[in-house]
Amino acid sequence: MVYTLAQLRGFVAVAEHGHFGRAAQSLLTSQPSLSRQVQGLERAVGVSLFERGPRGVQLTVAGHVFLRDARRILSLSEGAPETARRVAAGRAGRIQVAFISAAALSTLEPLLTEISFELAQLEVALVELSGAEQLQALADGRIDLGLVRPPVPTEEFDAQAVHAEPLIVALPVGHHLAEKDGPIAADDLIDEPILEYAEDGTDYLHDLCVRLLGSENFVAAQRVSQLSTALALVRARRGIALVPRSAAAMRFDGVIHREVAGSSPLVTLHACWRRDTMNPALINVIAYLRARLQP
C-alpha cells in the first residue's frame, strides 16, 4: 500500500466539501487531476472511499473510517518538522533521570516542577537508583542525569549542586535531650550512641557526622544505609541519629527532631551527567540548572 500526502489531502478535501469541483477549487487544482489522485488512493487502499452521484459524493463506511486516520496522518506530518526543530533545540525530547531516595524528600518535586515550567514539552522519565548504581548507569548511557550525594568522579562526569541542608538530630520520645526546647549543642551529643551511615556504599553522611562532633567524640551505634532505617532504629531506642533536615518529612511516630546549635555541616545533593552528553534536551536542562543556581 503506497500513497502520498497529496492524495490524502485531496481525499480529505473531497470528503469535507462533498464535491470534487469545490474541493479542487479549495486546493487550487483541476477537477480531473484531483479525481485521478483520489482514484489512485482508492487503488492503493484497495477499497472504494466514495459513493459517486450526479450531485456530488458521499463517503462509504470504509471512507468514514479512513477519513479519521487520514486526518491524523496529515496532522502528524505537518507537525513533525516543528517537533524535530524543538527536539534539536532541546525544547522537547526525553531525558532519563535517576535519584536516590533522599532526593524525593528534598529536591525531586520542586526541581521537576521548575524544569516542566521552563521546558514544558520535555518528557522526564524517572528511576530510583543508589548513588553507585547511578554512576554506573550514567557511564553505560542508560540514564542522562543523576541526583546523588558527593563525591562525584570528575574525570568522567560533570556536576552541579542542586540542594544543601543542615544536619539535625533525631531523638526518641522521652530522651533527655528531647525534653529541651530549642537547638541542641554539638557538645551535648558527646558520648551519645549515634547511628552511623554507609549510605549508597559511601561514607559521605558518616564523615559529616564525625566532622560535626569530632572523631574522638563520636560513639558509634548500629551501622545503617538508609535514612528510613536510621529513624526506625531511633524510634526503637537503638541510638540517636544526625539526619538531613528534610528527613523530618518522613514523620516517624515516636521520633522528635531538633536543630543543631551553631553552624552544622551542610548535606548536599548534586545533579551529575556525562561530560560528553549529546542530548540537546539534557544540555538545555544543564544550562537551566546552572543559571538557576548561580550565586
TrEMBL record:
Q: Which Pfam families match?
A: HTH_1 (PF00126), LysR_substrate (PF03466)
Q: Does the keyword Transcription regulation apply?
A: yes
Q: Which UniProt keywords apply?
A: DNA-binding, Transcription, Transcription regulation
Q: PROSITE patterns, per this entry?
A: HTH_LYSR
Task: Report domain HTH lysR-type positions.
Answer: 1-60
Tell me the protein family, please: Belongs to the LysR transcriptional regulatory family.
Its protein name is LysR family transcriptional regulator
